[in-house]
Write a structure and sequence with these properties.
CATH class of the largest domain: Alpha Beta
CATH topology of the largest domain: Muramoyl-pentapeptide Carboxypeptidase, domain 2
Bound molecules: zinc ion
Helix content: 40-55%
Largest sheet: 4 strands, antiparallel
Strand content: 5-15%
Number of strands: 6
Length: about 240
Amino acid sequence: MSESGGGRSRVGGGVVRALASYLRRALGPERAAAVFAEAGLEVDPDDIGVDMRWYASRQVLAVVDRVEPELGGCDLGRRTGEEMFRLRPDIHPMFHSLGSVHQALKTVVNLGSRTRTEPAYVVIEEGPTHLVVRSTAPRSTRFACGAAAKHWAQVPTLFDSIGTVIERCCVVRGDPYCEFRIAWDPVEGADTEGYDASRRRSHALVLRFEEEYASRHRKGTRNVHGRSHGNCRRL
Ligand SMILES: [Zn+2]
């Protein structure tokens, strides 16, 4: 997941690959390669394989700032979040085997926390068809928040459901933290006893996946549990 905007903060390779993949389609491969090169990013837009490296946030944001006007002012964070989901069909069965949108989303949100150096995403409210997730990363960006939101919004599609994510408050808009409400249409038959066995297997898979991710990112991973800063003044 992407990091905050300034200084030495970094962005995970999955985000950068997704950005490259989207720009390759939207702008064409030559222009995509050129904007990455201009920002000093060594990313080949033709290579959309798994990338476990970290990239400097300022370089990634330089690409975003450069090309958003060319794209008609689209929200490149959200488009990148969608692309992140599309690029990893190999792990979709694992999420689906968790048995419900609810469990799959909680796992995806948690994995997002394991792959960034900012404070973890925290689920502060949950119901059968919604989750509320808070991030206390103090210097997040519109790009980072958009990528997270749209990535999470895709997860219900694994269960033939439609998801929406709204960011009710955001540090970029001057709020003390970011807060996302993820909601989805109910799925008939999900989360029943029949899923229990596969869910247990999947939890083991998720754990292994998280451990692998954490070990590869060990150098830069530092998780701190989020804490409340009081009520969002926009609510
Ligand atoms: Zn935000």
